[in-house]
Amino acid sequence: MSEATTIVPVAIIMGSQSDWSVMKNAADTLEALGVAFDARIVSAHRTPERLYEFARGARDAGFKVIIAGAGGAAHLPGMTAALTPLPVFGVPVESRALSGKDSLLSIVQMPAGIPVGTLAIGRAGAINAALLAAAVLALSDSALAARLDAYRQAQTDAVAPQPRDDA
Ligand code: RP5
């Protein structure tokens, strides 16, 4: 993981330490693509001042894309999007009580004017948020675009034509 003081293009923020097992999938995907990131815990409810400071300063800090994961009453992605013009991708984390449906609905139903690109609940959403972040950065980075193409090709190549009993 990159140091907090290094300027990197992607910020991965999450509402709690308990979100990390899901959000680590975004981090691992970015790492596989050679995209630097900074991962932080920023809670909309427990550390609102940290959220304001991070989101208001994110563009000047050099970030280009923000991935925000949260569960339950998941206000983090929306509040972040309200405070920065950077693209924000929201990852709904599975909640214990409602399996992440609460997280999904909290993140996806933004009012017109403040967008959050909302991904699937859990691991798939975290991975896809990283891939979307990489795709955005690849628009102005041909080396990254080539790595993203290779990632997708490897994924295609890994799909067997027929199912096996022992797989
Ligand atoms: C949210 O509350 C976090 O994003 C987390 O998904 C959820 C539960 O947090 P903990 O009680 O596990 O810290 O703010």
Low-confidence stretches: none
CATH topology: Rossmann fold
Structural class: alpha/beta
Strand order of the largest sheet: 2-1-3-4-5
Q: What is the succession of H and E elements?
A: EHEHEHEHEHH
Largest sheet: 5 strands, parallel
Helices, by number, come to 6
The total beta strand count reads 5
Q: Which CATH top level class fits?
A: Alpha Beta
* C-alpha end-to-end distance: 32 Å
CATH architecture descriptor: 3-Layer(aba) Sandwich
pLDDT averaged over residues: 96
Helix percent band: 40-55%
Outline, from the CA principal axes? globular
Write down the domain tally: 1
Bound molecules: 5-O-phosphono-beta-D-ribofuranose
Gyration radius over CA = 16 Å
Q: Which range does the strand content fall in?
A: 5-15%
Family: Belongs to the AIR carboxylase family. Class I subfamily.
Pathway: Purine metabolism; IMP biosynthesis via de novo pathway; 5-amino-1-(5-phospho-D-ribosyl)imidazole-4-carboxylate from 5-amino-1-(5-phospho-D-ribosyl)imidazole (N5-CAIR route): step 2/2
EC number: 5.4.99.18
Organism: Aurantimonas endophytica
